[in-house]
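Archive maintenance. Older records in this collection stored only the sequence; we are now back-filling the structure field for every entry so that each record is complete. The fields below show one back-filled record exactly as it appears after the update. Entries are processed alphabetically, and Large ribosomal subunit protein uL15 is next in the queue.

ARCHIVE ENTRY
Title: Large ribosomal subunit protein uL15
Organism field: Anaerolinea thermolimosa
Length field: 150
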Amino acid sequence: MKLHDLVPNEGANKKRKRRGIGISAGQGKTAGRGTKGEGARSGQGGHLYRQGGNLPFYRRLPFMRGEGFTPPNRVEFNEVNLEQLERFPAGTEVTPELLAQAGMLHKVKNPVVILGNGELNVPLTVKVHRISKGAKAKIEAAGGKVELIA
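Back-filled structure field:
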C-alpha cells in the first residue's frame, strides 16, 4: 500500500451542493428557492416585525424594554447615613427595630444599609444587614462596633 492508494471510507466525504450551477445538478435555475415571493429573495425571513397580519412579536411582549425596566427580584435597602445616627446616645445598640421606632426607615420590611455620609463622634454598636467600607471605618474610629445580620 502506498500513500496514493489511501481513500476515505465509502460515504465519509459528501460533496456539497453547488446551487445554481446548471440544470443537471438538480439545484439549477431557481436554486431550490421556488419561484418569486419572499422566500426567493436574498436576506429573506427572520424579520420579527413582519408576521403576516399577526401582531408583531415584540409588540406582543410586555413593556420591559429600555432604561425604565426594573428587575422584579432586586433587593431594596433602607439607606441610613452616619449623620442620622448622631442622635443616639453613646453605647446604644443600633438595630433595624430601633431605627424603625425612630422613624428612619422607609419600608420596615426591607433590609438596612449604613452609608458613610457625615461624621460620627459617638461610640455605637451597629447591627445591620449591610454597611459601606467608609461607614464601617468611621464607626470603628469613633470607638464603636459593627455586626452584620445574615
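Update note: The first helix runs from residue 57 to 60. The mean pLDDT is 90.
Entry marked complete.
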